[in-house]
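Entry 12.
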Amino acid sequence: MHNDRLSLDAVARHVDAKAEDYCALSDRIWAVPELAFEEHRAVQEQIAMLEREGFRITRNVGGMATAFIAEFGKGGPIVGILGEFDALPDLAQESGRTEHVPTVKGTPGHGCGHNLLGAGSALAAVALKDALEAEGIAGTVRYYGCPAEESGSGKTFMARAGLFHDLDAAFCWHPSVVNEVQTTSSLACIQAYFRFKGRAAHAAAAPHVGRSALDAVELMNVGVNYMREHMPSDARVHYATTNTGGNAPNVVQAFAESLYLVRSPHLPDAERLFERVKKIAEGAALMTETSVTVQITDATSNVLPNKALQEAMYENMRRLGPPDFDEADLAFAEKLQKTALTEEEILASVKPHDLSLKTKVLHDGVLTMPTREEVMMGTTDVGDVSWIVPTVQCHTACFAIGTPFHTWQLVTQGNLPAAHKGMVLAAKAMAATAADVLRNPDLIARAKAELKERNGGRVYLCPIPEDVTPDDLRGKAA
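Predicted 3D structure (tokens):
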């Protein structure tokens, strides 16, 4: 099916026609930030708008009250556009300020720009639907409302439920400080609680009858830190002590808990490293005569890049060009850089891309696609989607160069005009590339052949154990 009526210019016009409404949606989500699995307001706002656009809504998918699918059209090809909308704890911040001024201390904030991510993806889906409808072209457009990316891996649960298996291609984006097609892979991860149980005792009168769970937590941490010398240099292990057994020093703690996050560029390597961490935990329990239980709470696969789709998206981004930032956008970004960002932060944000960008305040170009694939030192549940269906992502400049993610400096920019402009560019890039898929069966075939080659023909296996449900994770956003 070749149909040139789904041109880049036509799709872009449909995005522009609805952009104001979806920028307003992004701002409403920014104003009421909600943590993982609790994004009820954001879901209601999106569903209301998508229903008005004629999308069929399926709620509570994948066992999650804040996961949904909005669908328009019928028959193939079927394209999916992924949205996120969860916030982060303790990042409340007033908009447009260059100093830390929380709206309400201790409350969440959109420190990763997911208010923009969800609204921008919904805008792309609606614009593509409008283009199909205007030209009478067959095909199905789905918007996936995906909760809990920050903590909980909502897409991984949706993948486990088989919600992506009939897609021909999937599209996503992330707000950033640069404009580019994402060509990197990511780190697979496994996160788990290690809970040690001992025996309480009076620490002075009868310490010998106690068995300290806190000692076990500390010995496990020591053991893992010694392991770092003997694990692959591109793997990562992080931990937090989440329960010390209380605040009384004259008690031998009967219970203590730590949370570990193990990452590696490939899921099998992460699984092997996790088994080593478990053995260290068992050793700590033996040394302290305590017992340990392990509960996996989160896991994601590494992203499988798809060059066929990347090249199509890059061509669209190249033709679209960067966001049209004005003097006010540049002035605020410059002020933020001078008052709230360090030279080290600016350098760190451009080092993976192009060091010459360190002299700019907002990115005014589109980065060329690198010839060599790298690994992003981060994790995303988009990885699980990419093992099932050819998947492509882009980044667009929504924030001042140097802005660290998961900080108030990002939150303060999240509803400003510059962020809206980056979001609209992402919507155009995703919708235009999805249109390429809908009108070009050869592109679908090449993308699927590449996926089969990259995954070795393996059937997708969800890294989250079957006995772990979203209900187990609710309220544990971190």
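Annotation: The radius of gyration is 23 Å. Residues 8-31 form the longest helix (24 residues).
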